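Journal club side-thread
Mid-discussion, someone asked how the predicted structure for our own chain would compare to the paper's figures. Pasting it here so we can look after the session.
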Amino acid sequence: TACDLSDDTILRLANDCPNIVAIKDVTGDMTRCSYLMAHKPDNFMLFSGHDETALAYMMLGGNGLISVASNLRPKLFSKLTKTALNGDYAVARKLNQQLIDLCRICFCESNPIPLKWGLWFEQHLTTAHLRLPLTVLSIEHHERMKQILTKLKE
């Protein structure tokens, strides 16, 4: 919806609309996740849309992650998600610690500006320029993004 829904509205939709089977929750609110997990129908899925808190979300019972930063390191995020959903939290925590700086820098400016710049830096895109009103990632973030991406080579 690109706007927040109240918990009551989410649960009403989950219970009353069989064609609505999941929600991507971008709030990063673990209290909300806990509440929805306790009250949702069994077949309704909750996905984190907040990269920095995705591990905690999955540890509370969330079904996975719909991520921004994973576009830069898909294998690592896939491994994080698989290990978390399999209950291997020690490995998942280590992966999360490796990825947390990438998660954070991907939101240092409006999404998708940092992501697109990172994809351009790694030569997955031919330009770092975006259509207006979006602009290229501010130069002040370039070096940090380069360091993070270099450290996390897959």
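Post-session note: The radius of gyration is 17 Å.
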